[in-house]
Recover the amino acids of this structure.
């Protein structure tokens, strides 16, 4: 083996070791999500310049997409967001709605969509994008279990994110988690929206978010509500009033039964 190759391997091993140590990650800038318990588990918020994975079942894709949009909006700030999708993802789930982004309180003008023909193209595009420090975040959406996204590919994305300071978000639909260098790993499910005011057709978006892996803190599971006006997550709202009041003109069923028995 040539001396140049030995030197390159030694450099790569050193970079990987730094990724896997707590010291590097704890110095990352973190952005608060707005949910108190989740931010406490994350030591103040989601780490920038790192890779985060969000998994979901195929039927939960809409909820997971909304959750990732919220995370991307928090970490990217005012910088552009690049979203990389396989063509297959669009066939399965449909195109992303820019009006939906606006309803979540995010600016669709800052979102750049890239459609990749296959997994290899999506990985290459994401790695190149993560190396560009002009971006705020890069979302890579992959459908199903893909052999191309292995530990080596995960390390490559993490190295690019650490080098540029750009945050990477992996949206994995209908896939099983595998070993990776991700800072956090989430499992997303839809949660019931609370009853809204009479003039609103639906309630605030709510997510059943389970933190499966947290490299430097505890895991947990929370109902996280998205505040579209403040563009941040929050604790679940509580409502003291019932959804529907009992009709006042109807007799009590128990009393009616007693009268019949008498």
């Amino acid at each position: 083996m040539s001396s140049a190759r030995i030197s390159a391997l030694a450099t790569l091993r050193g970079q990987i070791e730094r990724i896997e140590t707590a010291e590097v990650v704890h110095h990352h800038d973190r952005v608060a999500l707005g949910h108190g318990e989740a931010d406490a588990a994350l030591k103040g918020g989601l780490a920038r310049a790192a890779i985060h994975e969000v998994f979901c079942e195929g039927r939960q894709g809409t909820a997971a997409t909304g959750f990732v949009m919220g995370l991307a909006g928090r970490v990217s700030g005012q910088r552009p967001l690049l979203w990389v999708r396989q063509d297959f993802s669009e066939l399965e789930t449909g195109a992303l709605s820019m009006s939906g982004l606006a309803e979540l309180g995010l600016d669709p003008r800052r979102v750049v969509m890239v459609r990749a023909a296959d997994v290899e193209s999506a990985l290459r595009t994401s790695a190149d994008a993560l190396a560009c420090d002009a971006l705020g975040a890069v979302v890579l959406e992959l459908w199903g279990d893909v052999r191309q996204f292995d530990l080596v590919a995960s390390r490559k994305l993490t190295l690019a994110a650490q080098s540029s300071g750009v945050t990477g978000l992996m949206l994995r639909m209908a896939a099983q988690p595998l070993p990776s260098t991700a800072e956090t790993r989430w499992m997303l499910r839809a949660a019931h929206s609370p009853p809204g005011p009479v003039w609103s057709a639906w309630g605030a978006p709510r997510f059943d978010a389970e933190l499966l892996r947290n490299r430097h803190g505890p895991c947990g599971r929370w109902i996280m509500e998205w505040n579209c006006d403040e563009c941040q997550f929050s604790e679940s709202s509580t409502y003291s009033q019932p959804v529907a009041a009992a009709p006042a003109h109807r007799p009590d069923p128990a009393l009616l039964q007693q009268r019949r028995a008498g």
Observations:
- The chain is about 35% helix and 25% strand.
- The radius of gyration is 23 Å.
